[in-house]
Design a protein that fits this description.
3-stranded antiparallel beta sheet, 4 helices, 7-stranded antiparallel beta sheet, mainly beta, about 15% helix, globular, about 200 residues
Amino acid sequence: MKKTLFKLTYGLFVLSSRDGMKDNGCIINTVMQVTDTPLQIAVAVNKDNYTLQMIEKSRIFNISVLSEDVPFSVFQNFGFQSGRSADKFSQFEYKKRAANDVYYLTEYTNAFISAKVVNMIDCGTHMMIIGEVTQALTLSDTPSVTYDYYFKNIKPKPEAKKKGYVCKICGYVYEGDVLPEDFICPLCKHPASDFEKLE
């Protein structure tokens, strides 16, 4: 059943926020416009993400719309480590502060959107954030990267030599003959059901 949902047209984005002097961002795949007047967007983010905690405090966020020229290193930086222990923006040179003082990416992205939180809806594992757009800017004409494009052209293929299970979301490889049913991917936080056996 979950594989069918991969047929939906997901994009890939960096969601960023700021809490005091601390900046952070994470990879997400769910952003959509929900109203035109006022102009509002909806964003879904896993509750385990540190960026969500920052948004809950600051009530502001930015979306960087990733484009097809984005290298895998951007996903490693913003998606494969936690902002609780790493300063994700410190080594990332392609950034600028929007009017809301939150970073957005200036390279590998074709647009950014700033918003202020107007509502938050608990959706179980994820929080749905409704934000009113405060700033938006087109940065390039490069097409937006989709989940499908990411899987086919950006995400490295797993090494055939390894025995174990690979996460279909981020590519993390669990080495071993049996994957525990309650295993959670240490990188993207997806469950064992999102892993497939390496042949």
